[in-house]
Amino acid sequence: MELRQIRYALSVARERSFTRAAERLNVSQSAVSEQVRLLEESIGFSLFRRTPRGIEVTEAGRTFFYEAERVVGDFDSLGDIARRLKRAPSETFTLAMGSGMAQIVIPKLFRDVPDQLRTVRLDILTAPTRTIFELLAEEKIDAGLAIESDPEHVPPGIVFEPLAEAELTLIAHPSHPLARGTRAVDLGRLVLEPIVMSELSVGYGRVVHAMFAELGIRPNILAVADNIETIKVIVQSGRGLAIVPRACVDVEVALGVLRALPIAPPRNIRMNLYRRRQALSRRKESHFAVVKAALVG
């Protein structure tokens, strides 16, 4: 049994005519008849019978052609699959990033990386800083983007490359009294305000908590969330304030659902590109270098 024989027989079944099938296939009628004959000899039963009204498909033929349509369709789809695989990246590079960092790093990353990593698929996931460290230690990701952390909170064997800095800003619901001003908000004015915080021991949550501690202030913590998206939603509800990287709220500020206010004293936080100390494969070391160059640039 050959695929060509099945295609010819299917064409006859659709056209109900050997002549019209031959015209559609652009071959001679004798070639169609010969291929159908060979197929019927191979399967051991007739697919067609001649009647005064022309060609009809036998009962067995109807069942055979039902399955044949599916088989030919699956075979034809293999060509599409092969073409996609030919174009698809043959390797992956897995990068995890802290919540809210996409607005800061993705434009840089995809402006520069695709042409240089044409054969590499970037797998990007979002996770809290602590989880990024765990995934690196367990060799489940190749690199991680996160806010600077104290060395004691970074697991052994994890090192980092410093990247850009990001400005911290106070966010509030537009109806909040503080949102009416334009001047920098002194942190001391926030002592009684409900504050939404990120996790307190690592990442920018630790930085914000330390800012209050340096002023001898204990923040009135309303909630602790492990991602900036949740923090923004809580602040949008009008229940509290938060201090987050300014670039993380550009969209909400533009839409008018949040106000971003400078803080006094001003504070920037540094983003780091974390990795395992041990070397990656030669190709992944090359990918890491390209990703780092894109983010630094």
Automatic annotation (TrEMBL):
Record's keyword annotation contains Transcription regulation: yes
InterPro entries: LysR_HTH_N, LysR_subst-bd, WH-like_DNA-bd_sf, WH_DNA-bd_sf
Pfam families in alphabetical order: HTH_1 (PF00126), LysR_substrate (PF03466)
Top-level lineage group: Bacteria
Membership in a protein family: Belongs to the LysR transcriptional regulatory family.
Keywords: DNA-binding, Transcription, Transcription regulation
Record's keyword annotation contains Hydrolase: no
Entries under Gene3D superfamilies matching the protein: 3.40.190.290, Winged helix-like DNA-binding domain superfamily/Winged helix DNA-binding domain
Organism from which the protein derives: Rhodoplanes tepidamans (Rhodoplanes cryptolactis)
Every HTH lysR-type domain range: 1-58
Record protein name field: LysR family transcriptional regulator
Transmembrane segments: none
